[in-house]
TrEMBL record:
Signal peptide segment: none
Cellular localization per UniProt: Cell membrane
Primary location: membrane
Annotated Gene3D superfamilies: MetI-like (1.10.3720.10)
Domain (ABC transmembrane type-1): residue spans on this chain: 96-312
InterPro entries: MetI-like, MetI-like_sf, UgpAE/MalFG_permease
Gene Ontology BP terms: transmembrane transport
Residues spanning the membrane: 32-58, 100-121, 142-162, 182-208, 229-251, 291-310
Taxonomic source organism: Candidatus Fimimonas merdipullorum
Protein name: Sugar ABC transporter permease
CC per GO annotation: plasma membrane
CDD domains tied to this protein: TM_PBP2 (cd06261)
Topology in membrane: Multi-pass membrane protein
Length: 325
């Protein structure tokens, strides 16, 4: 607890509380340690142990097909050629641009929508109708991207309802899923349809934690519903919004591999190929086993993501006073 002391002039001064040591905090929360151990073990095995594989990015074409892993790495020479190709190949730079464009479109167009949906759901007074709405908007999240792409491929196909309606109005049919100009917009539309409802769960939980007395006091002062939302709800959930925004910025270089891979085809590769699908095509695609270059691309991608999330967290701490850590 904070303690009071006196300055030389005799005025009272509030001292900052002393921070407890790590060992004391560990001892105080020792009952929670068994619940943390499985998560730590999982992270060590599946997140930290594979990081040793980044050495492949500094090796010259290790032959994993002929030799065991460690022998193949020992036989190959150290090199920076993979990084030289990475920063000089215009094709890779185009994939980086596609990734950034799709990610920025998702942030600008989709990030505010879960907040708006959460506010709307929280204002529904009929509990049964509220649960029905939540169930309907949450459901698409549990469908795989293969199923969703198949559904929308039929909807936007040449003989789908969208083109049938366009033909009835005198328009020409368009294969939207194979149109480069439409690909990024369809990625954003499908991603929003699938994830907006599930992403709103965090904001709904934050809204339910707001003290109802604040709304009662606002009503007594004559505040309208929009004024209550703008001056009470939004400021109260702003720390949650900032944390989710920081996390989303950390994924700026990851535009949704599963979705884009399921939607991508030879017609849309120019505007739709992203870093994730390019790395997959290099390392595991048919006829290609360029492990060194694919690992180098993934490593640079990870470093950029780390810098982005640290920078976003620092800016949030300075401007908003809140962050992830």
């Amino acid at each position: 607890m904070a303690e009071l002391t006196k300055t030389k002039s005799g005025a009272p001064k509030l001292l900052k509380p002393k921070r407890s040591s790590f060992s004391s905090r560990l001892k105080r929360h020792r009952s929670l340690i068994p619940f943390v151990i499985p998560a730590v073990v999982f992270a060590l095995i599946f997140s930290y142990l594979p990081m040793a594989g980044v050495v492949i990015a500094f090796k010259d074409d290790p032959n994993f097909g002929r030799y065991p892993v460690f022998e193949a790495l020992n036989r190959s020479e150290w090199t920076l050629e993979n990084f030289r190709i990475l920063f000089s190949d215009p094709e890779i730079l185009r994939y980086v641009r596609n990734t950034l464009i799709i990610s920025v479109m998702k942030i600008v167009l989709l990030f505010p929508l879960p907040v708006i949906l959460a506010v709307m759901v929280s204002e529904i007074r009929n509990k049964h109708f509220s649960k029905l709405v939540q169930g309907l908007v949450f459901l698409p999240h549990f469908l795989s991207w293969v199923v969703i792409v198949g559904i929308f491929n039929n909807i936007f196909g040449l003989y789908g309802p969208v083109n049938n309606l366009a033909a009835a109005l005198g328009g020409e049919p368009i294969y939207y899923m194979g149109e480069p100009g439409w690909f990024r917009w369809l990625v954003v539309i499908l991603s929003g349809w699938k994830e907006i409802g599930y992403s709103s769960i965090v904001y709904i939980a934050a809204i339910t934690a707001i003290d109802p007395a604040l709304y009662e006091a606002a009503k007594m002062d004559g505040a309208t519903k929009m004024q209550q939302i703008w001056h009470i709800t939004i400021p109260a959930i702003m720390p949650t919004i900032m944390v989710m925004l920081i996390i989303r910025i950390g994924y700026l270089m990851e535009a949704g591999f599963e979705q884009v891979y399921a939607m991508l085809n030879s017609l849309t590769r120019e505007t739709g190929e992203i870093i994730g699908t390019y790395v997959y095509r290099l390392g595991l695609g048919s006829g290609s086993r360029d492990y060194g270059l694919s690992t180098a691309v993934g490593l640079v991608n990870g470093v950029i993501s780390l810098v982005l999330i640290i920078s976003a967290n620092r800016i949030s701490k300075k401007r908003m006073g809140t962050g992830i850590w």
